[in-house]
Structures are given as C-alpha cells and as structure tokens.
Amino acid sequence: MGVVIERVEWEPGSLVYFFLFCSCFSSVFLLPYFSKNSAVVATRASHSSLLDLGPSAPFLRFQRRFLLLYSLASVIGGLETVFGEDEYQRSGASRVQMVLYLCAGAAASVFIGSFLGVLSDIFGPRKTCIIYCILHLLVGILRSVTQHPNIWMTSVCLAVASFMFLFSFETWMVTEHEKQSHRQDLLTDTFWLMIFFESASLIGSQVLSNMLIRNFDKGFFFPSVPAALLALIGILYIRKEWNGSGHFLSFRDYWKSFSLNILSDKRIWLLACAQACLHFSVSIFWILWAPTIVADGREVHLSLIYPCFLGSRMLGSTTVPWFSSFRSFLLNEEYLAAAFVIAGLCLTIVAYDYQEVGVLVTLFCIFHACSGLIYPSLARLRTIYVPNELRASMISLSLVPANAAILFILVQGGYYRNLSNAIIIAFSAFGLFIGAGCIYILKRWRKLPRESWHKL
C-alpha cells in the first residue's frame, strides 16, 4: 500500500491585503479629523493632501514632480532586481555562484560606494541621480543585447546603483527644497511619502516584471527593455526639469567643512551608527526571508507574501504624520527608539527558528511596519543635525561598515556555511537594539540650539 503525502500550501488570505489597504487609506485621510490639536490640524491640513492647491501650491508642484521621479527610479530598481533573480535561474547558477555574485555586489558597495557620497556632495546630487539611471540603462542594454550577459558586471552595476539610491535622491530633494525656499517643516511629509511611494512602486514593478517574464517565455521581447526605456526617460526628465551644481569648489573646502561639521559632532556619529544598523538588518532580511519561511518544507507562494511586507512598510510610513502631530509632548527620538526595539524583538523571535509560517509572516510584517516608520524619522533627524551640503557623504560613509558586515556574513554564512541562518538573524536583531541605544543616547544629548539650522 503506497503512502500518500499530502501537499500543503500556504498563502496569505485576501483579507490581509484588504486590511493593509484600508489601514493605509484611513491613516492618510483621517489624520486631519482625529488630531487633538486644532492648530496642528489647521497647519497640516493645508499640505497633507496631494490634491490640495492652497497657499502651498508651489511646494506641492515641486513635491509631485519629485515623487514622480522617485517612483520612476523605484520601479526601475524593482524591475532590475526581479530580472536579476530570473537571470540566475535561466543561467543555471548554483547556490555558491549566487553567493559569489552577492559578494561581488557587496564588495563593490564597500570599495566603490565609499566615495560616491563624497563625489555627490562635491559635484552635486543631480549628477549622482543621473548616474543611477545610466547604470540601470547599461544593465538593461546588456540584458537585451545578449541572452546571457556578464552576470558579474550586472551584479556590480546594480549593487552600486542600489547603494546610490539610498542617498542621492534624498540629498537632491532636500537641496532643491532649501534652494526653492520652502518651509522646512514640510520636509516631514515628503520623507514619509517617499517611503510610501517607493513601496507602492516596488509592488507595481513586481506585477509588471512577472508579466514581462511570462511574455518572454512566449517569445516576446526581452523583459529588460522596459527597464532600459524607463531609465532613459528618467535621465531625460532629470535633465529637463532641474538644474544642479556642486556645493564645493575643491576637495580641500569639502574636507574642511566635513571635519568641522561631521567628524567633530558625536551626535552625528550616533545617528550614523543607527542608520548603519538599520541598513544591515534590512539587507539581511531580504537575503534570508525566503529561506526562513520555506524552511519547514511547505510550499509557499512567496510572490503573494512579498506585497504584504511592502504594504506593511507603507502602513508604517503613514504613522509618521500622526506622531509628528503630537511632537509637543513626544520627541522624534522617543518613538523612533521604540520602533527599533519592536523590530529587534520581531527578529529575535524569528532567530529562535520558529517554523509556523503564519507567525513568521506576521512578525516580518511588523518588522517592515517599524522600518516604514524608522526611515522617514531618521531622514528628519538628518535634516536636524547634518548640513545639506554634507548629507550624501554622511549617509554613504555610515553605510560602509554595514556593507562590510554584510560581505562578512555572505562569505562566512553563505559560502563557508560557518554561520546558521538563525545566528545571522540574531546578529541583525542585535544591530537593531544597538540602533535603539544610539537613538536613546542621542535624545539625552539633544541640544535645541543646533536645530536652528533646519527648524522642523
């Protein structure tokens, strides 16, 4: 008598997507009606809606134009990421080869990315954004011309482009915001909208890439062609809509300002440590989330779980204006430290090798909701403490240790198999707790006169 093995599949229910959509919608549009401070409502209602054409119409035009470009860049990055994973499968790459490709990208981020922020501050963030699109255009052309492009080259180019995305567009937006003399308190809305639209764009890019890959199997055009066309559109849009210039005439002037404003300020060191810890933990998550979920042997529809994470990230970003409306008795550092701790606790539970898929997905969604809150809050703190002309350098240099740690994890855990997935996730959880400690100390050291640079 044969043994019948029941096939068990797990996928999130449709109510999960409905809950995330309704929660995001309610969080965005109900804020003006539930804020307890009427003055805050009157102030924020004038710019909380993207459809408002009130007194801040010039700012809204600027914000919409930038968010359109930022969403376009996010779609390009999302398309190339999905195509990269499909490229590994089509080329028949083994697990060791995939690890080596990831190591090459991490090494490029460490050795090349270290100088990109410095060059961005010297020559201007506009040029860095153009280079980001050029790298994606190059990768799209390589994948379209040949069926099996040089994966080493594409991995390095995409890793460098992804690293540039972390600081180039934010730095450019803040610089243009200040150049056009918009109110500094309006930056908070743009920060959380950046995370919101980026997450939505990544969901859209996943849908589009899946459609293109299925059509490619039927004999249609290469799926990288739309990514290359979007990158070309991004280059033309940047060159048409904005003009840019560098902040410093020479490297000597830059180094003098960097030493005075960055190296000598301990609060910026704490802020840099916190964002490095977040970058390390989020990067480790995207490497290990799929192996962690399928570890129990059940078949899981990963493509259906991925939007849940991004939807949770969108929901977390919508909580930023809620916390900002109560800033009179709740400091930015207080809820930011709490978000770090909650995210760290979620990964700590996962590090115990918990196998229930539903619980794992729930914990990962909470983790991403916290990250959606943390990213805009860190950007707001950067605006408080970091001069705009040194913003890209501060972000890029702070992420170098995180990328070095990721490279170490890939080599020891992925290639030599000396570290288990549970230990690696425990490291990422520990990093989040360190980030929470840095934010707590930053709150203790906070001095209001320094905020005269950028009043938020």
Kindly summarize this structure in a few lines.
This protein is an all-alpha fold. It has helices at residues 14-29, 31-34, 38-45, 57-91, 95-111, 113-123, 125-145, 151-165, 168-179, 187-217, 224-241, 251-263, 266-293, 302-318, 320-324, 332-351, 357-385, 391-415, 421-444, and strands spanning 9-10, 299-300. A two-stranded parallel ribbon has the order 1-2.
Explain this structure to me?
The protein is an all-alpha fold and 456 residues long. The chain contains 19 helices and two strands. The protein is globular. It has two domains: 62-241, MFS general substrate transporter like domains (Growth Hormone, Chain: A); 263-447, MFS general substrate transporter like domains (Growth Hormone, Chain: A). The longest helix has 35 residues, at 57-91. It has helices at residues 14-29, 31-34, 38-45, 57-91, 95-111, 113-123, 125-145, 151-165, 168-179, 187-217, 224-241, 251-263, 266-293, 302-318, 320-324, 332-351, 357-385, 391-415, 421-444, and strands spanning 9-10, 299-300. Helix 5 (95-111) runs antiparallel to helix 18 (391-415).
Major beta-sheet overview: 2 strands, parallel
Portion in helices: over 70%
Listing every helix as H and every strand as E from the N terminus to the C terminus, the arrangement reads EHHHHHHHHHHHHHEHHHHHH
CATH fold naming of the largest domain? Growth Hormone, Chain: A
Q: Proportion of β residues? A: under 5%
CATH class of the largest domain reads Mainly Alpha
CATH architecture of the largest domain: Up-down Bundle
Domain count: the total is 2
**In terms of structural class, how would the helical and strand content be classed?**
mainly alpha
Mass-distribution shape: globular
Number of H/I helices: 19
Number of strands: 2
Uncertain segments are 1-5, 37-55, 448-454
Protein name: Major facilitator superfamily domain-containing protein 5
GO molecular function: molybdate ion transmembrane transporter activity
GO cellular component, one term: membrane
Keywords: Membrane, Transmembrane, Transmembrane helix
